[in-house]
Amino acid sequence: MASKGKNVVEVVMHSAKRIARPRKRRRGKETELVDVPSLKDFVHKQTVIHLYRTFFRAAARIPDDKFREDAQKEIRQTFKNDAIQTDKLAITMALKDGERRLQQFCSMVGYDVSGTSEDPDSWLNIKDENDPRGRVGVEWPWEKKGGSD
Q: Which of 117, 94, 103, 96 is nearest to 54 (CA)?
């Protein structure tokens, strides 16, 4: 029992010595940040990633397996071919072309890129002065009084 107590005391003393020692500071060459992308480059990369993922979300809407796989293979190959571009103008043009192609592709497969449908016949667009929130009704149809049922 005493040996266990001694071990605990030794451990506590040893850790106290380690805490009491001053830490050594590393002195040497200052590390320089090399090849750090600019904010514009970072935003551009995120735009390309978003475009790539949106293409694949739209491709997932293709019902035929063979056509879906072919479309996904084409998307991968096109992005891989354009990944080697280094000229800023060529990169910008490829991005704009990709956005245009995405719009065309989404219209072909019926994928809504914006996430909101702008259907003029939507119940959300109904202007009703009695109900400013656009709800269709406040009571259940089967609870209407004076019904013919």
A: 103
pTM of the model: 0.54
Provide the CA 121 distance to its chain's centre, in angstroms: 30
Torsional sign, CA 56, 57, 62, 64: positive
Convert the pLDDT of each residue in 49-94 to its tens digit: 999 999 999 999 998 999 999 999 999 999 999 888 888 888 889 9
Element (H, E) at 130: none
Distance CA 96, CA 82 (A): 12
CB-based contacts of 119, cutoff 8 Å, min separation 6? 125
Tokens of residue 7, six digits:
């071990």
- The one-letter code for the residue type at 21 is R
Instruction: Output DSSP code: residue 147.
Output: -
